[in-house]
Structures
1.
Amino acid sequence: MNDSTIPVSVPAAFGCGDQPLPAVGLGLWKIERASVGSLVTEAIRVGYRHLDSACDYGNEADVGAGIHKALTTGLCRREDLWVTSKLWNTFHDPQHVRPALEQTLRDLRLDYVDLYLVHFPIALAYVPFDVRYPPGWFFDPDAESPEMRPVRIPLADTWQAMERVVDAGLVRRIGVCNYGVALLRELLAACRIPPAVLQVEMHPLLTQEKLLQFCRQAKIAVTAFSPLGAPSYVPLGMAREADSLLTHPTIMEIAAAVSHTPAQVLLRWGVQRGTAVIPKTSRRERLAENLDLFGLSLSGEQMAAISSLDAHRRFNDPGVFCEQAFNTFFPIYE
């Protein structure tokens, strides 16, 4: 299985056993429902064993159909897959954590997920499943002036409910997304089951060196979302074409020197610094390319040149997009 050649070590949670987190996964954000099922099946066929999903992506039932086909046709065994999903903001109240997970499991057609993450450190008012699912960011999108509706639910209370779904055997490990060092310290000080994985935006324009070093010290594995940087955000108006790392002279020069594509260089940089990466693609020809990183090694000078591009450029920032798109100022980063 070529995507586990460089496994990322992840601590076991409560006797579930050690399982390597495959270094390259398939990110499923923004992949259309009509195509994502067959794409997932094809990804598993070419060697992917790490799938990154979420309630909020709105396509988990279709992802589940793709996984089901792969399993029933013998492309892999369930125990060979690492499937991640995420708790949405409207389900932070402890009483809603397990029902939200159970809905995800029904959609994915699975008995458990390998990793369940708190999607954002943002608690929003509950929206019942029969009103709207996935709930999205607005409390009432049909209101005259729709807004987010934040609620006061301590992150520790949500985490205790996450620990209980581990106890119930519905998830193998739990973790968080979009947390910084301060929130991680607070979580580690109070938790019974520590977070196994932190998933954050991370690419050469946002290297987050201190956060990565802290996670190494705390034995928290790191998954980098948006490892290619800007491409997913350009269609949303959250980045410009000029922000693309795929055409950056430094990346293109290194790509030519190592006879690989700029995308492969960016992904290899992420893997080589010790993170898992979850590039999104809806193009089948890119699946194998994104996975084919393990015959490539970047020199120390090349790694340093790529890291020197850091500009603290965050594309996925609630402090920006919540106000622009959801009429609510909600910063989570300093």
2.
Amino acid sequence: MNKEDLLIIFTKNPIRGKVKTRLARDLGKDKALEVYKYLLAHSYEVTSPLPVTKHVYYSQEIGLNDRWDHGDFDKKLQKGADLGEKMKNAFQAGFEEGYKSIVIIGTDLYELRTEDIKKAFSYLKNHDYVIGPASDGGYYLLGMNSLNSGIFINKEWSTSSVFRDTLKDMEGSNIKLLRTQTDIDVLDDIKDHPDFHKFLN
């Protein structure tokens, strides 16, 4: 096990009406929850093989008797007033524990592969930051070798300006961009994907 690399996984507790709320407007709360559980399963599958330390941060309360009990996942609780502060606190805790390279992902990504995360850690060996742009203007992965708190403030989270504004906070640094991927948030994100057709009927 690599003791210098830390993967932070931000997840929401899978509660009906609390996840994929924009998707629920078209599919209903029950199917939106099914989609999110499907994405959770995928997130677990792609992160399980990684030989790094893995911290799963829950949005509301630490889950009991769930998939993250299986494998080398440490469970923690997100702390902060907004997404930016929650991510900053998670990164800060990781660096204070002595990790040299830290990568964070969410659990809304069906295109994400194990190899994408491996590449992110590899790039951090000779880059200051690695970031994966999302098609909606945000980002799906962020990695760094030391804490830059400015990345997490003065952002309009869940808007199309997040990725662009984050890059501005990294100006003058050595940055590696990953391939663009799609966060699953609205019906258009899944309607043409055959793996999601079972949720649309």
